[in-house]
Write a structure and sequence with these properties.
about 375 residues; alpha/beta; eight-stranded parallel barrel; 14 helices; about 40% helix; binds (3S,4R)-3-hydroxy-2-oxopiperidin-4-yl beta-D-xylopyranoside
Length: about 375
C-alpha cells in the first residue's frame, strides 16, 4: 500500500484534531503537500529485467500467486516480462498442498509451473518443510505418525514436481531466533534435530536432479544466527545433502546488515561449494525519513548495493523478490503499510527497479 497515502491520511487526522482545539487564533495556512514523485515508466516501457540478469548469467525471480496469473493482465504481463525464475509465494507449501491428510492438491503449484514453462522460466519449489504453513492435523500426530506423514509428504511432493522444478527450498526457517540451535517446532519436537538432514535425504531420493536448498531469514549478515546457519549447512554439505542456501533478505532500508557483512557471508557460504540465492528480497521504506521521493531514492540504493553483493560472487545464482508490485505484498499485513517492491501499484517501474537493473549490469 502507498506510504504517501497513509502519511497523507495521518496528516489529515492530525489537522482535524488540531482544528478541534477551538481558540479562535489566526487561521493557519493549509500544509504544503509533500511533493509526489514523478511516476516511473510502465512495466512494458522498460527493458526486461530478465535480460539484464541473463547478461550477468543470473536468475531473477519473483514469488507469485497462481490465482492472479491469468486473471490480472498487468500482473501476468509483468511477471512474464521481467523474470526468468518463479517461486510459489504460498501454493507449494504443505498446508495448501495437503490440507487434509492423504489428499494432495497440486492445482496451484501446477498452474505456476505451467505458466513458467510456457515462458521459458525456471521454477523453485517453496517449501517442503516449514512450521509456518503446516496444517493442523500434522500438529496432532504422535511421533511415529508424524514420521510417516513427513516422509510421505516430502516423497509425494518432490516426486510430483520432479524434472519440473530446478530447485527446492527443502527446509525453511529451522534456526532459532534468540538462542543457539534449532527452533522448537512440531518437527524438531516430534522427530528430533536430525529432521533437517532427514528432509534433505528424502528430497534427494524423490528428486535427484533438483538443487536442494536450506532457506532462512535473519542470517544475511554476520551474527549468531548466520553462524548457526553456516554451521548447519556446512554439516549438511559434508554429508552431501545440501546444494544451496537461500538468504531471504526481507529488510528495512533503515536497518539491515552492513553490505560488507552480507558480501562476506555470501562468500563464506559460496566457499563451502554452495549455490547462494537472495531468496525473498523486499525493502521496507516506511521508516525512512524525508518525503516519498527521498524514501524511493534510498530504496533504490539499498536494492542496488545488496543485489550487487550477489552479482560480485559467481556462485550467487539468483535474486528472487517476494512479489514485484506494491499492489500485492505480504509486507503490508506482516509489518504495516509499505511500498517494498520494484513496481508501484500501477505497475510502473520505481527507482528500486533501476537500482536492481544497475546492479545486474554492473553499474
Ligand atoms: C508468506 C507469504 O508471503 C504470505 O502470503 C503467506 O500468507 C505466509 O507466508 N518467509 C517465507 C515465506 O519463507 O514463505 C513467507 O511467505 C514470508 C516469510
Amino acid at each position: 500500500m502507498r506510504v504517501a497515502l497513509a502519511v497523507a491520511q495521518a496528516l489529515l487526522l492530525v489537522a482535524s484534531l488540531a482544528g478541534c482545539g477551538g481558540g479562535g487564533g489566526a487561521p493557519t495556512a493549509p500544509p504544503t503537500p509533500a511533493p509526489t514523485p514523478t511516476p516511473g515508466p510502465l512495466y512494458t516501457e522498460v527493458a526486461p529485467l530478465r535480460d539484464a540478469a541473463a547478461s550477468a548469467g543470473r536468475l531473477v525471480g519473483a514469488a507469485v500467486f497462481s490465482s492472479r496469473l491469468g486473471s490480472d493482465a498487468s500482473y501476468t504481463g509483468a511477471a512474464g516480462r521481467h523474470f526468468n525464475y518463479l517461486t510459489a509465494e504460498y501454493e507449494m507449501k504443505w498446508d495448501p498442498i495437503q490440507r487434509v491428510q492423504g489428499q494432495y492438491d497440486f492445482s496451484g503449484g501446477d498452474a505456476i509451473v505451467a505458466f513458467a514453462e510456457s515462458r521459458g522460466m525456471r521454477v523453485k519449489g517453496h517449501a517442503l518443510v516449514w512450521h509456518g504453513a503446516t496444517p493442523r492435523w500434522v500438529e496432532s500426530l504422535s511421533p511415529p505418525e508424524l514420521r510417516i506423514a513427513f516422509e510421505d509428504h516430502i516423497r509425494t511432493v518432490a516426486g510430483h514436481y520432479r524434472r519440473r522444478v530446478m530447485a527446492w527450498d527443502v527446509v525453511n526457517e529451522a534456526i532459532d531466533d534468540s538462542q543457539a540451535g534449532l527452533r522448537s517446532t512440531v518437527f524438531s519436537r516430534g522427530l528430533g534435530p536430525d529432521y533437517v538432514a532427514e528432509a534433505f535425504r528424502l528430497a534427494r531420493k524423490a528428486d535427484p536432479d533438483a538443487e536442494l536448498i536450506y532457506n532462512d531469514y535473519g542470517g544475511e549478515g554476520l551474527n549468531r544466527k548466520s553462524n548457526d546457519f553456516y554451521n548447519l549447512v556446512k554439516d549438511l554439505r559434508q554429508r552431501g545433502l545440501v546444494d544451496g542456501v537461500g538468504l531471504q533478505m526481507h529488510i528495512s532500508a533503515t536497518s539491515f546488515p552492513a553490505v560488507a557483512d552480507i558480501a562476506a557471508n555470501i562468500n563464506r557460504l559460496a566457499d563451502l561449494g554452495l549455490q547462494v540465492n537472495l531468496s525473498e528480497m523486499d525493502v521496507r521504506v516506511r521508516d525512512v525519513s524525508g518525503d516519498a521521493a527521498a524514501k524511493l531514492q534510498r530504496q533504490r540504493q539499498v536494492y542496488r548495493d545488496v543485489v550487487a553483493a550477489c552479482v560480485a560472487q559467481p556462485r550467487c545464482e539468483a535474486v528472487t523478490f517476494w512479489g514485484f508490485t506494491d499492489a500485492h505484498s505480504w509486507v503490508d499485513a506482516a509489518f504495516g503499510a509499505d511500498d517494498p517492491l520494484l513496481l508501484d501499484e500501477q505497475y510502473r517501474a520505481k527507482p528500486a527497479f533501476f537500482g536492481v537493473e544497475d546492479a545486474l549490469l554492473g553499474r
